[in-house]
Amino acid sequence: MSATRNVTTLSTEQVEVAHFFGEGDGATAIEHVFDEFEGEYPGVEVVPAGYTNTSSYGLEIKSRILRQDPPSVFMTWTGQDLVPYADSDATADLTDLWDREGLAQSFVDGVADLVRLDGRYVAVPLDIHRKNNLFYNVALAEDLGVDPTRIDDPRELLEVLRQCDGGGAIGLTQPMKNPWTVLQLWAQIVVGLYDVNVYESISRGDAGAHRSEIEASVALLAEYADLAEDDAHFLGMGGADQRFRDGEAVFFQQGDWVGAGYEEEAGFDYGADWDHVPFPGTDGVYVMGMDAIAAARDAARPDAAEAFVSVAASRSALKGLNRYKGSIPPRDDVSLDAYPQFLQDQYEDFTTASVHTGGQKSLVAPGKSVETRDAFVGFVADRDVQRTTDALVACYGD
Q1: Helix (H, G, I), strand (E, B) or coil at 348
Q2: What Å distances lie between residue 177 and 34, 120, 267, 268, CA to CA?
Q3: Cα 360 from Cα 180, distance rounded (Å)
Q4: Residue 331 has what DSSP assignment?
Q5: Do 113 and 26 share a structural domain?
Q6: Of the N and C termini of the chain, which has fewer Cβ atoms inside 10 Å?
Q7: Structurally, how many domains does the chain consist of?
Q8: What tens digit of pLDDT does each residue of 173-192 get?
Q9: Any idea what the Cα angle at residue 198 is, between residues 193 and 202, rounded to 5°?
Q10: Which of 368, 292, 300 is CA-nearest to residue 128?
Q11: What is the pLDDT of residues 1-54, one digit of tens each?
């Protein structure tokens, strides 16, 4: 920890921390950081403001910033999601903290760039999630004669899903209650059908030039949806996850957070009962989702806010947070020896990947991000490929 910290000046103070890790593994992860901070600063009380709905969370943070009553510290995402906060001068400049504690040398190459805007650091990354995993049930796949390691692209996956359906099994459990899960699956289809360059070009606004690719990927998504459960429209991510755990579905496309949860379940063993491959066509690609933490420029106690961010950025805090969250740490000086094998394998995939790219939160401006999710609300309702294509071209476009 930095020698410049002064526990005495921070005694009998409070620091409010707003976050969207309000339940499950996220709640355990952020509590670890709270414990680390309170151990470092025993006289400072953490006042948590936890949310489970990220949309409600985002609206609340923006509203409080406009009222000039921001939480001292607030969680966000890296990349484009940070831009509106920085542009409105709502975030504190953390460059001195980064320089003082040598964070640029401690964090994985490229990660620091995602929280550095206009030459200044405005946040600290907390985790690295992988979004392009395809989990599979080992026994079900074997019973149906399916080899997930030999599926080369998203169209071939469709044929495998039809094979599963013919064998009387759910091929791919598809939660469609919330649009983000549908958007996430579609994004992997784009990367798998084409490449990261096309995916990033669409995400960053050049959708008109890729209309045919958008339409083809939406059409394939519709064919996947035709093979989904009858109640997929009402199925949330947690429900789909439970169906996969219960052996009702061969495949589940999700981020690494679910795999970390499987590691904790007795009798559901990695490699024997469940396993994973990159989503077909994305081998060598690591699609990243990253949470970050920022300090408000107008924090009631800027020193307490910066102290909390500093603790959150530490090796000890990030080791525990990522172990509980089911992600890999953004620092390269954290030992993963105590991590489950699945997360160690994810880290190996991260270090050997030929291409790293961001999720939609990182690549897409927040306003457009909301519009893309709305496009998939319409898709779930009517499966209209043309209408969904038009909506995506419009909302991704400049």
Answers
A1: helix
A2: 32, 39, 29, 26
A3: 10
A4: B
A5: yes
A6: C
A7: 2
A8: 999 999 999 999 999 999 99
A9: 115
A10: 292
A11: 333 344 445 555 899 999 999 988 899 999 999 999 999 999 899 999 999 878
